[in-house]
Structures are given as structure tokens and as C-alpha cells.
Design a protein that fits this description.
The complex is a heterotrimer of chains A (109), B (453) and C (469). With 109 residues, chain A is mainly beta. In chain A, 0% of the residues lie in helices and 43% in strands. In chain A, the strands form two sheets. Chain A has a six-stranded antiparallel sheet with strand order 1-9-8-4-3-2, with no helix packed on it. Chain A has a three-stranded antiparallel sheet with strand order 5-6-7, with no helix packed on it. In chain B, helix 4 packs across helix 11 and helix 6 packs across helix 7. The mean pLDDT of chain B is 90. Classes of the chains: A mainly beta (109), B alpha/beta (453), C alpha/beta (469). The interface between B and C is medium-sized, with 33 and 33 residues.
Chain lengths: 109, 453, 469
């Protein structure tokens, strides 16, 4: 089981949106949505672009490169050109700290 | 004498490292000039990021191209032919049994070369020498071919790098009209320190109406201890009018070796180029061949077999340029993949307006033997002449269950049925290999690959 | 206003234009945010659509032009020399007699009202940027079939439109999808309710009249579970010596067990750039068929796609391309197998003549998990003279083991034996060649409704005339 890793303070992610963070050297896309946090691999399953450089729109993460959309809660691909889910990671907030624990499941892509 | 570029990674190479390399070897001024010209082209081109179509399937991060150090190169002659060991003899057994002595060249990367040339070759004027020797004895010819290669490679970063850092290669010259019955064997063993890079540059000058068979084997280290090695090699094959050549190559590197293999072939009128490439070893192996059918009536047949396992990556990029009329090309590749191996085939048949009445065929078939294996293929055609025959096919699939079932009803157990199907799949290409003992050895290799978990 | 310059092309019978059209609005050349705001206001669109447009404009401006394909021809198109929005009318009419006289005359000449009477269940007629006429048979409306101009659908069915618009082809998918999303106008919207078969085709007809016109229709078709529909589109434009641009986005959603057939007879004049994105998502046991004929335009770049998302889904692309002098048909197909037991077929036929160039560019991708899928691609090219060119760029990416995937292609000229045989039977050289070409495209023509098959054969006849000597 991976360790919980602090990726920042709540105030670092105060605006709703996607953020690039590193967890154990791995690129993770942290999403703040309505004050709740979600985390996923920072790599679109279509053309491997960084999801954190995209926007969060109507509760969905939109890849900036070709517009594929993902559900931050489940990682599901919601629209073409992506068809494969992106792997998600656990997030918790302890006090002011936002913590991420990497999934043990191998990436589907 | 051993030449080493003072501790410099590929990323930090400079003009002065090239100058040192050339002066350590006491090369003629023209060689340094050509190296610098190629180095300039190399430096002007960007490093691949891994996102480009050309690079996205290569495990660039694993290889760490930019951080590699150019390995030592040597023009030392290895003491004796004993280094060849039993492996080389196995490779050449049946020609010896037939009473024909092959010419042999043994190269151990980073250490040196040794060769033996039977009298039958010598008296026909065949010359086969190290690149360094050729710089003095075949200066004009070598210079012209090297310089043309630098020009052609202008937009190709690693072709240029190979032309700039060339070492450990050889140069073969077969005079006009000489028909050689015995083959020439080139045997290359991995060598040198871990995380080093080697850049063999080979020239083949095949004069008018000559005939030759060139067999090449690439193999792991003599001591059997695999260490990460990167090889970028370039073979320049010039075939004059009516020349005929069969190239057979067996790539059987150890699993720590990565290799970019470049090949430039030019074919004059009515020349015939036959190639069979067998690809079994290496961590990553990429072949990029550009074949120019420059003279009317030139013909070629380019066949390949590949069998990948574990996380091996095999790529074949083959361009057939039909420049002259009535030229014929034929590409047939067959691959089988297990484990999480990957293969990529990119063929381009280009038929120029002037190349009327040409005939081109290309076929790439891949068997996927595991769920984690993957195969990509792009068999492209660009046809600018109307009076041509041109077709291509590509197929990817698993073992046909109906065939397997049929064999089982004949009393063959599932594992053997599968084996029979895979052998049957490779057989049309294996049958083209110009030696029965080598064919037998290939069948053994295929069987060994199949058996491994 | 300067008189538009007409370039003569005798065998293109749709090259006429109407001079006496009075447009309600014609934008200045070029694309600006102000224009988008103005057109949205003229259309009285909801705010959410304007937001989508403005965002799309930013995406469009930030994306580079494609670096593949016919980069040279593409670079010759001056995007600043295009009228992006031309409004010929105030509203869509339901009766031809209410359509402005000049516009109606054009459609009469194109035979649309006549075709409608004879064999169509519904018609959308678009002139420049707007749908000027729209009708659907009453019995279909009663069954709950919705067939509307896209602009009307945004206002009347915002919930369905919001649910699917841009979710098959996102704004950022490619530069031209972004352009269309920013400035789209017109196009069709179809929703077929569960278990409803629309047996007679619905048709849209697109006409460009002005010089340097940009037409950006947007089409969305949804077939609910177990339903079927056949949609046909045709298009023509006057022949001018300067360029026009047509850049459509077509999104299809075939829900489980439904079937969509989408037929296109693209016959733009040879000064039109046709840069179109077409994509379908196809769920379990559903089928999508793209029947795609490309005869006109200067440069077409179009690769209809089917994403096979559900078990048992089936995709098909059947296409012909004809490229004559100065034309490049860069067309193809994409099939993405995501679910198991999916099947796809691509059959592409192309003919190049008089220096024309056809390219087949395709992608066949099998994702991990798409076990037991079957896919076949076949491309046949015919070169009619030595000035012409044919390319085949097929990409196959296979990530699953238990599959059967095959690709075949041939390039050939008309065989001397074939010609000799036909001429020995008393056929003139010209007729013999036409006959062979007709035979070559027969698998395509067979799939068209009879009236279209006759029309297409006649069109090809016209294109082939004078091709000898």
C-alpha cells in the first residue's frame, strides 16, 4: 500500500479547477470541485497530454489538447477522442493539508 | 590504438570531441570534414521528445539516449580467429561442409576486428577491410559514398550522428563480373562498457554484374554478461548495373542492447537485391531502410521475420523509392509477439511519375500470442505513375482457433498445434534463407522463443 | 460591389449563381468576436450557446494549422478573405412559396422541391448560413420524430441539444471543429424516439451562392434505442475563381440497437475547401453507416469516424472519391473498436484523372478489451492518366489479441485488355472507360436510393466526358 503524501495546503487549491502536483515523483492531476478534492493520473488516455493544463467544466475535467472529458470522481472517459478511463487516486484533507495516496492498481494504459 | 572521446555524453558532444576522435585515429582531413558536416546536421536537429509519430513507440526514457557516452572504438586487430568461437562455426557450417570456405569478419564492439579471407576471394580481387583501412586504400570511393550519405541524412538526426561518430565498421568491395559462390560472414558481438554507444558504419560496393551473399549475425557479449549498450549503425549498399546480392541478417542481441539500424540501398539497372532479416533479440530494435530503385529493371525482395517476447520493441520502417521505369519491389514481413512485446511496421512505396510499368507489393502480417502484446502497422502508398501494379496488405490477428481445432482432431495436442501454426506462419520467409543449416537454426530459434514462458 | 468572377467549368452544371439575392445581413470578411456576438444576437440564441462559441473562438485561434496532408493547398486558403456569416432570410419557412423568390428559383433548378414530393420524408434546405426551408411529414411528427434546423433545435429542445452538442466532437478536437463551433449556423437536428423506423430518407441540401462564402453547418442526429433513420445530404456551389470554405461538424449518436445511415453526395464547385469533421458513437448492437461520395471541391479533408462503444456495435464506411484537375480528395475513415464483438468495414474506391490526387487516410484502432472484434479495410484506386496521383495512408493500431484485422489496397489503371474487349464489342473509347469506371464504383452506387444512384451515374458520366485525348 502506498503512503499518503502531502501535496499542498487547502489554500494552494482555493479556486475550482485542475492542478499539477507530484506524488512520489509521479505526475498527478488534483481536481478541486465544490470544495472537494479528487486525484487522477496527469495523463490523458487519448494522446497523453497533461490533464492539469485543462479546465474543469460542469464538474468534468476537459483535456486542453483535444477536448476529451473525464469524470474526476471515477476517472471514466466521457467523450471521444478518449475511450479509456484515467486511473484515479485517493485524496484526503487533514486539517489544512491535502494528501494523496497513489493507487496500487496498474495504469490501464 | 584505441580512441575514446573524453567523457562526453551524446548531449554534450561538441565539434572538438569530433576533432579529437578523428585526430586520435590519424584520419585524413576529408574524413574529419565529413564527420563535422554530419555532426553539424545532427546538432541542428531537435532531440526527440517521444511524442512525435516517429518516436512515440520507442522506450526513449529507458534508453536515455542523451546521457549515453560514445564507447571506445578500436582499430586493433584481435589476436586470432580463435575469438570466433563455436558460434560462428555453427553459422557457417554447411558452406564448409560443401567444401566452400566463406570469408569471415569478426567484430567485437569496442575491442576490434579480425578477418580471414580465403584465397578464392583474394584472387578475384575482393577486398574487405576495416573502415580505417579503407580511408587510405579506397579513399576516393569511400569519400564519395560517405559524403553522399551525409547529404542524404541531412534531416535525420541519428543517421547523421552515426556518420559523425562512425567507428568499428567495415568496407567490402566486390569487383565487376566476379561471381562469388561462397558467402561472406560478418559476425558482430556486443562489447564495451555499460551505457555506452557504438556507431558502426559499413560500406558495400558491389560492382557491375557481380554476385555475392553477405550473412550477418549480431549477437550478445562473448562472456554472456548482458550490459546496457546502444548501437546506431548505418550500412550503405551501392549496387551497380546487373549486380546481384543476397543479404541475410540475424539479429540476436542480448536483452540489454538497443539498436537503431539504418540501411541505404541504391540499385542501378537490372540489379537485384534480396534481403532476409530475422529479428529475435535486443531490448529495442529499429530498422530503417531506404531502398532507391534508380535504374530501369532493378528488382528487390525484402523479407523479414520477427518474434518478440517480454517487453521487446521491434520497429521496421521501409521505404521503396521507385525512381526508374520497370522496377519491382516486394516487401513481406511476418511477426509473432508474446509477453508485452510491441511491433511497428511502416512501409512506404513511392512510385515516381517516371517509374512507369513498375510493380510493387508489400505485406505485413502479425500474430498476437498474448493479450498484452500489441502491433501497429502503416503500409503507405504514394503513386504518381498510372501504369503500375501496386498492392499491399496488412493483417493482425491471433492464432486461428479453427486451424487449431482441426489439428487437434488429427490427434495433435493444443501446444503442438499452436507450434505448428506459428511455424507454418513463418515458413514462407524461412524458406527464402539461402542456406539449409541456417534455416534449421532459425526454426530452432523460433521453437526456443515459443517454449520460453 | 465588385462583380464576382465566374470561372467557367462546362461539365459542372451547378456552377450558376444568383445575382439578385438581397441578403438580410452579410458580414464583412474575416472572423472576429464581435461578429460572433452579433450573429448570436441575430439568432436570439440562449446565453449558454454564445459562451460555447466564444470559448471555441479562443481554441480555434490557439490551434496551429495541420502539418500533415496537403499543406501547400491548405496554405493557399486565405481565412481572412471569407464571409463567415450571410443571412439570406429572417426565418425558416415551411412552405416553398414563402421562400424568397431568387432562393426558391435556385432550389427549383437543383430539383429539391420535386425530389421532396417524390421520395423524401423531410427536407432541410440551407442557403448560405441559414436554413431557408424546412419540412417534415406529419406522420413522423406524430410518432415523435424531431427533424429541425439546428438553430431552431437549440431554442426548442435545449435539453437534448445540451446533452449531446460537442460531446461526440469536442470543440478542441481539431482546429476546424473549433472554427465550426465558434461560428456554426444551420445544419440539421434529428431525434428518433425508441423503436421508431423512419423508412423514407430525410434530406438536407446545402447551397452556397456568394463568392468567398464560409458555410459552417452543424448537424446532430440521435437515434434512441431500436430506432432507424437514413439521412442524405447534398451540396453545390457556384464556380468562382476565388475560394470558399465549407467546414461542417456532424455528430451522430446511435443508442443501443439503433441504426443510422448517413449518405453524403459532396459536389461542391472546384473552388470550395471542404474541411469537415464527422464522427459517430455507436452503442451496443447499434450500427452506423457512412456512405460518402466526394466528387467536387478543391481540397476535401474528411475522415468519417465510428467509435464502437458497446458490445456487438457495427460500423461501416463506404466511400468513393473522384479527383479531377486541380482537385485533392484527402478522405478516409476511422474505426475505433472499444467494446468486444464489434465489427467494422471500410471500403474506399478512388479515381484520379487529369492531374487530380486522391488520398486514403485511415485509422483502425483496437483498444484493449475489444476482444473478438473483426475489422476489414479495402482501398482500391484507379489512375486514369500519368498526371494523376493516388496515396494510401492506413494506420492500424492493435492492442488486443483475439481479433481479426485485415487491410488490403490496390492501385491500378484501366486494363488494356478490358478496354480492348469493350471496344471490340463496338464501344467508343470514352464509353468503354466510363463503363469500367461505373463498374468500379458500383459497390458504392448500389447503396444509394435509386434516384441518387441515377444522378450519381450521370454526374460521373459528366466528369468522365472528354477524358480521352
Amino acid at each position: 500500500m502506498s503512503e499518503w503524501v502531502r501535496v499542498g495546503g487547502k489554500k494552494d487549491f482555493s479556486a475550482e479547477g485542475a492542478f499539477a502536483v507530484k506524488v512520489n515523483g509521479q505526475d498527478v492531476c488534483l481536481v478541486q470541485l465544490g470544495g472537494k478534492f479528487y486525484a487522477m493520473d496527469d495523463r490523458c488516455t487519448h494522446a497523453e497530454s497533461m490533464l492539469s493544463s485543462g479546465e474543469v467544466e460542469d464538474g468534468e475535467v476537459v483535456c486542453a489538447l483535444h477536448g476529451a472529458r473525464f469524470d474526476p470522481k471515477t476517472g471514466d472517459a466521457l467523450t471521444p477522442p478518449a475511450v479509456k478511463p484515467v486511473r484515479t487516486h485517493e485524496v484526503k484533507v487533514e486539517g489544512d493539508n491535502v494528501m494523496v495516496r497513489l493507487s496500487d492498481v496498474p495504469s490501464p494504459v | 590504438m584505441t580512441a575514446t572521446i573524453p567523457a562526453s555524453t551524446l548531449k554534450s558532444l561538441s565539434e572538438s570531441s569530433i576533432a579529437t576522435l578523428s585526430s586520435d585515429r590519424r584520419e585524413p582531413a576529408w574524413a574529419l570534414e565529413l564527420r563535422q558536416a554530419a555532426f553539424k546536421n545532427f546538432s541542428a536537429l531537435p532531440w526527440p521528445t517521444g511524442k512525435e509519430e516517429h518516436w512515440k513507440r520507442i522506450p526513449l526514457a529507458d534508453i536515455g539516449l542523451g546521457e549515453l557516452t560514445p564507447g571506445a572504438s578500436s582499430s586493433l586487430t584481435l589476436e586470432s580467429m580463435e575469438n570466433l568461437g563455436s558460434r560462428l562455426r555453427a553459422f557457417t557450417r554447411d558452406t564448409e561442409e560443401a567444401g566452400v570456405m566463406p570469408a569471415r569478419r569478426f567484430v567485437e564492439l569496442a575491442r576490434g576486428q579480425v578477418s580471414s579471407m580465403p584465397e578464392a576471394f583474394r584472387e578475384r580481387g575482393v577486398e574487405w577491410m576495416t573502415l580505417e583501412e579503407a580511408m587510405t586504400t579506397q579513399a576516393d570511393r569511400l569519400r564519395a559514398a560517405w559524403s553522399a550519405a551525409v547529404e542524404r541524412a541531412k534531416t535525420d538526426k541519428f543517421r547523421s550522428l552515426t556518420l559523425a561518430l562512425a567507428n568499428g565498421g567495415s568496407c567490402l568491395f566486390i569487383p565487376r563480373g566476379q561471381v562469388l559462390k561462397a558467402p561472406l560472414h560478418l559476425y558482430v558481438a556486443a562489447g564495451g562498457e555499460a551505457q555506452t554507444a557504438q556507431f558502426p558504419l559499413n560500406f558495400y560496393f558491389l560492382e557491375e554484374a557481380c554476385e555475392a551473399q553477405i550473412w550477418e549475425e549480431l549477437t550478445g557479449r562473448e562472456d554472456g554478461e548482458a550490459q546496457p549498450l546502444f548501437v546506431s549503425s548505418l550500412s550503405i549498399i551501392e549496387m551497380k548495373e546487373n549486380a546481384k546480392a543476397s543479404f541475410f541478417s540475424l539479429q540476436n542481441w542480448d536483452e540489454a542492447t538497443s539498436h537503431f539500424q539504418f540501411q541505404d540501398v541504391s540499385q542501378k539497372s537490372f540489379s537485384r537485391f534480396n534481403a532476409v532479416a530475422v529479428c529475435l533479440g535486443a531490448r529495442m530494435f529499429r530498422n530503417e531502410s531506404i531502398i532507391n530503385l534508380e535504374g530501369q529493371g532493378a528488382e528487390n525482395k525484402v523479407l523479414g521475420i520477427l518474434f518478440g517476447e517480454k517487453s521487446q520493441v521491434f520497429e521496421n520502417w521501409i521505404t521503396q523509392n521507385h525512381v526508374a521505369p520497370k522496377t519491382t519491389s516486394d516487401i513481406q514481413y511476418r511477426g509473432a509477439l508474446k509477453g508485452s512485446a510491441r511491433s511497428f511496421f511502416s512501409g512506404l512505396v513511392y512510385i515516381k511519375k517516371e517509374a512507369q510499368q513498375s510493380d510493387a507489393f508489400q505485406s505485413a502480417k502479425t500474430l498476437l500470442l498474448s493479450r498484452e502484446a500489441r502491433a501497429d502497422a502503416i503500409p503507405n502508398l504514394e503513386i504518381l505513375a498510372d501504369d503500375v501494379k501496386c498492392s499491399h496488405g496488412a493483417a493482425v490477428g491471433s492464432i486461428d482457433e479453427d486451424q487449431k481445432f482441426y489439428l487437434q482432431t488429427r490427434g495433435i495436442d493444443p501446444a503442438n498445434a499452436e507450434k505448428a501454426i506459428i511455424e507454418g506462419f513463418f515458413e514462407p520467409v524461412i524458406a527464402e534463407v539461402p542456406s539449409e543449416s541456417v534455416q534449421e537454426r532459425l526454426r530452432q530459434f523460433v521453437e526456443e522463443k515459443m517454449k520460453r514462458p | 460591389m465588385s462583380k464576382p468572377q465566374l470561372a467557367p467549368k462546362e461539365d459542372y452544371k451547378y456552377g450558376f449563381h444568383d445575382e439578385d439575392i438581397i441578403n438580410v445581413f452579410k458580414s464583412e470578411k474575416g472572423l472576429t468576436r464581435r461578429l460572433i456576438e452579433a450573429m448570436s444576437a441575430m439568432k436570439k440564441e440562449p446565453e449558454w450557446m454564445l459562451k460555447i462559441r466564444i470559448k471555441a473562438l479562443e481554441v480555434y485561434q490557439s490551434k496551429p494549422m495541420p502539418t500533415w496532408g496537403n499543406v501547400q493547398l491548405l496554405s493557399e486558403l486565405d481565412f481572412n478573405n471569407i464571409h463567415y456569416y450571410v443571412r439570406p432570410n429572417e426565418k425558416t419557412e415551411k412552405d416553398w412559396k414563402d421562400v424568397p423568390e431568387g432562393v426558391k428559383r435556385t432550389f427549383d433548378r437543383l430539383g429539391i422541391p420535386e425530389a421532396e414530393r417524390k421520395f423524401l420524408a423531410g427536407v432541410t434546405a440551407q442557403y448560405e448560413s441559414e436554413v431557408v426551408y424546412h419540412s417534415i411529414r406529419e406522420d413522423l411528427t406524430k410518432q415523435g420524430v424531431i427533424f429541425l434546423g439546428m438553430d431552431d433545435a437549440v431554442k426548442q429542445y435545449p435539453d437534448i441539444v445540451k446533452k449531446y452538442f460537442g460531446r461526440v466532437i469536442p470543440t478542441a478536437d481539431n482546429k476546424f471543429a473549433a472554427l465550426n463551433t465558434a461560428v456554426w449556423s444551420g445544419g440539421s437536428f434529428i431525434y428518433v424516439p425508441k423503436n421508431t423506423n423512419v423508412e423514407i430518407p430525410l434530406q438536407a441540401y446545402f447551397r452556397i451562392n456568394s463568392e468567398n462564402m464560409g458555410q459552417f453547418e452543424r448537424t446532430l442526429i440521435i437515434t434512441d434505442e431500436g430506432s432507424t433513420v437514413h439521412y442524405i445530404e447534398g451540396c453545390t456551389a457556384p464556380t468562382y475563381s476565388s475560394d470558399s470554405l465549407h467546414s461542417a461538424v456532424v455528430e451522430l449518436v446511435a443508442l443501443p440497437g439503433s441504426k443510422i445511415r448517413y449518405t453524403t453526395i459532396q459536389n461542391w464547385s472546384n473552388n470550395v475547401y471542404n474541411l469537415v469533421t464527422k464522427r459517430a458513437v455507436c452503442y451496443a448492437d447499434a450500427a452506423v453507416e457512412w456512405i460518402d461520395g466526394n466528387i467536387g471541391s478543391k481540397l476535401t479533408m474528411k475522415y468519417p469516424a465510428v467509435y464502437l462503444m458497446g458490445k456487438g456495435a457495427r460500423g461501416e464506411v463506404l466511400s468513393i472519391a473522384y479527383a479531377g484537375k486541380g482537385q485533392h480528395q484527402d478522405a478516409g475513415a476511422k474505426m475505433v473498436h472499444v467494446a468486444p464483438h464489434t465489427t467494422s468495414t471500410i471500403l474506399s474506391k478512388s479515381i484520379s484523372r487529369d492531374g487530380g490526387r486522391t488520398s486514403y487516410r485511415g485509422l483502425l484502432r483496437v483498444e484493449k478489451g475489444a476482444e473478438h472484434c473483426k475489422a476489414s479495410v479495402r482501398c482500391d484506386a484507379l489512375l486514369l492518366d500519368e498526371a494523376s496521383r493516388s496515396d494510401t495512408y492506413p494506420t492500424m493500431e492493435i492492442n488486443e489479441k483475439n481479433v481479426a484485422v485485415g487491410h488490403e489496397a490496390t492501385v491500378s489503371k484501366i486494363g488494356d485488355e478490358q478496354m480492348f474487349y469493350l471496344m471490340s464489342r463496338g464501344l467508343k473509347e470514352n464509353d468503354a472507360q466510363s463503363l469500367i469506371v461505373n463498374g468500379f464504383i458500383e459497390p458504392f452506387v448500389r447503396e444509394l436510393p435509386m434516384e441518387y444512384a441515377v444522378e450519381l451515374n450521370r454526374l460521373m458520366q459528366l466528369e468522365m466526358e472528354g477524358s480521352i485525348g
